[in-house]
Amino acid sequence: MQTRCALVGMPGSGKSTVGRQLARRLGLPFIDLDQRLEQQLGTSIRNYFEQHGEQAFRDHESALLAALADEPGGMILSTGGGAVLRPENREALRRSFPHVMYLRASPEEIFRRIKHDRTRPLLQVADPLARLRELYRDRDPLYRETARYVIETGRPTVNTLVNMAMMQL
Ligand code: S3P
């Protein structure tokens, strides 16, 4: 059975960076759910949110995740931070990806990393740190429920994080 690994966690937790390098090291395809969605939608996620709202975005996200869950073969999948919100998505991830890893970072650490990033629609608010704390409080239990492993992303370099992920496979 080929390695199927999905990375979950908050926006800015390093899912895409770690996932891409992990895939390269393992010689597996890397799939970034957000990037695929942008290709499908023909616009940026931020634009799509603005025009159609969050629920329409979540419908597309769930449909693509279900399709990838049914796609056979090894892959490293980086999910969007909100992919775990719907129970059917958590179920699809657990069922189809034996290695679901939660890249955990504190809201304060995430804020430091992405405070200048204007591409994340959920953080375009007056107080993004308060928003991140709220999202973290709601989602940390969902990430933990979905993932088989928790990887603490606080201090280690990307390379160390990739090594940590490889050790769990
Ligand atoms: C979202 C996170 C984003 C993207 C969308 C919604 C969220 O992905 O899917 O903007 O709800 O946290 P990243 O986690 O890659 O930023």
Automatic annotation (TrEMBL):
Its main location: cytoplasm. It is an enzyme of class 2 (transferase). Signal peptide: none annotated. Keywords: Amino-acid biosynthesis, Aromatic amino acid biosynthesis, ATP-binding, Cytoplasm, Kinase, Magnesium, Metal-binding, Nucleotide-binding, Transferase. Catalyzes the specific phosphorylation of the 3-hydroxyl group of shikimic acid using ATP as a cosubstrate. ATP binds at G12, S13, G14, K15, S16, T17, R120. InterPro entries: P-loop_NTPase, Shikimate/glucono_kinase, Shikimate_kinase/TSH1, Shikimate_kinase_CS. It is found in: Cytoplasm. Belongs to the shikimate kinase family. It catalyses: shikimate + ATP = 3-phosphoshikimate + ADP + H(+). GO terms for cellular component: cytosol. Monomer. This is Shikimate kinase. It comes from Alicycliphilus denitrificans (strain DSM 14773 / CIP 107495 / K601). Binds 1 Mg(2+) ion per subunit. Substrate binds at D34, R58, G81, R139. Its EC number is 2.7.1.71.
